[in-house]
Amino acid sequence: MDVRMGSTGKFFVGGNWKANGTKESVSKLVSGLNSAEITSDVEVIVAPIFLHLPYVVDHIDSRYQVSAQNCWVGRAGAYTGEIAPEQLADMSIPWVILGHSERRSLLKESNDFVGAKAANALAHGLKVIACIGETLEQRESGQMYDVLEGQLKGVADSVSSWEDVVVAYEPVWAIGTGKVATPEQAQEVHAYIRKWLGDKVSQDVSSATRIIYGGSVNDQNAAELANKEDVDGFLVGGASLKADAFATICNARAKVPA
Ligand SMILES: O=C(CO)COP(=O)(O)O
């Protein structure tokens, strides 16, 4: 089994809770996760909304790491409504998700802006899950690789060290739609991303960087996707809100025979 080095060399599963949850539901989810059985071969991250971060940091088991879903592009200061990476680090939040397609489309975050945010977060000691992905229209009109390249380049132009970067391939047409990419579709794009990193960044970065898949991953389809050579983990939305389903996804690679 081909295992990526990354910072820990482990299969990587992130639960992106998006703008979901109340005090009550988050407390239930955290207790469900605390009693879930998860193999030690996997690095697991959960990403609640900013407001719930302190509660989750204080109450979740140390087997899980906590992530924000966004951060500011610069330092702390006069930026109303924003949260800077050093403020996340100060709250013991080690990870941040950047460039999610919901932010790219709804908030018009550009490739350069996402790259600048990634560099800024890394400079302040955070680790970054950098999201890329094409829409159905872009895929069907043959623009998929141009779009993915632009998104990768946005990150690569700003980021000098990739040690603390995980790349999440999340085809927009698969997010929240129940229409998961086939294992072959995911593998094809992951292999493209790995080759792009090898050609444009370095062979070391290409082989060490974990490339994870997101988009309608659930407890039924995760094992087959995890079996693909270049799928190093998942970024999970809806199914990460259920502790049992999320634990099954976290254990998906462990179930695959080596
Ligand atoms: O956007 C996603 C994770 O960041 C995927 O969401 P779903 O798993 O709900 O499709």
Automatic annotation (TrEMBL):
Pathway per the UniProt entry: Carbohydrate biosynthesis
InterPro entries named among the record's database cross-references: Aldolase_TIM, TIM_sf, TrioseP_Isoase_bac/euk, Triosephosphate_isomerase, Triosephosphate_isomerase_AS
Ranges annotated as spanning the membrane: none
Source organism, top-level taxon: Eukaryota
Keywords of the record: Isomerase
Family note: Belongs to the triosephosphate isomerase family.
Assembly, per entry: Homodimer.
PANTHER family: TRIOSEPHOSPHATE ISOMERASE (PTHR21139)
NCBIfam families hit by this protein: tim
Protein name per the record: G12879 protein
Organism the protein comes from: Coccomyxa viridis
Gene: g12879
